[in-house]
């Protein structure tokens, strides 16, 4: 009986000493908001360095594959899309790829962009930077 009590005490003490980390590092999530509905964008090329922990998830997914994995959003000409990106990024660069393969930078103001006046299919790529890392997000739209 004494051995069981000693064994149980050892397990309790060892478990208490291990504990769990105060915080966990999580990959920031990016959402695009259309008419009040939130959609999680496809993440790619995630890098983070915090508390002596370095995380790299560099994938070779091309932008077309990521767009295929995202449910294409149906939007109207000149609709406004909003973004919600966790962990307060320090910089966001947005590019738009059209059906002809032309790439152009998109201006964002107050985490919002305006959809094109021309109908068509577009893929958007957001390159997001924080003090501790970076990540790319992708989504696509069909402008009616």
* Largest sheet features: 7 strands, mixed
Number of domains: 1
Strand content: over 45%
Decide which structural class fits the backbone: alpha+beta
Helix content: 10-25%
* H and E order: HEEEEHEEEEEEE
Instruction: Please give the count of helices.
Output: 2
What gyration radius follows from the Cα positions, in whole Å? 22 Å
Assigned CATH architecture: Sandwich
Residue stretches low in confidence (pLDDT < 50, at least 5 long) are 3-21
Mean pLDDT: 87
N-to-C terminal Cα separation, in Å?
A: 76 Å
Number of strands: 11
Shape verdict: globular
Broad CATH class: Mainly Beta
Question: Could you walk me through the main structural features you see in this protein, from its secondary elements to its overall organization?
Answer:
With 144 residues, the protein is of the alpha+beta class. It contains 2 helices and 11 strands. Strands 3, 4, 5, 7, 8, 10 and 11 form a 7-stranded mixed sheet that branches. The chain has a 4-stranded antiparallel sheet with strand order 2-1-6-9, with no helix packed on it. The model is unreliable at 3-21 (pLDDT under 50).
């Amino acid at each position: 009986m004494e051995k069981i009590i000693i064994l149980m005490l050892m397990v309790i003490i060892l478990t208490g000493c291990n504990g769990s980390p105060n915080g966990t590092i999580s990959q920031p999530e990016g959402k695009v908001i259309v008419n009040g509905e939130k959609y999680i964008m496809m993440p790619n090329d995630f890098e983070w360095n915090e508390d002596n922990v370095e995380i790299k998830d560099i994938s070779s997914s091309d932008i077309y594959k990521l767009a295929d994995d995202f449910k294409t959003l149906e939007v109207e000409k000149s609709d406004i899309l909003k973004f919600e990106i966790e962990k307060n990024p320090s910089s966001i660069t947005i590019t738009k790829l059209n059906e002809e393969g032309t790439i152009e930078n998109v201006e964002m103001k107050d985490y919002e962009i305006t959809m094109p006046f021309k109908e068509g299919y577009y893929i958007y790529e957001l390159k997001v930077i924080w003090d501790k890392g970076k990540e790319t997000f992708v989504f696509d739209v069909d402008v009616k």
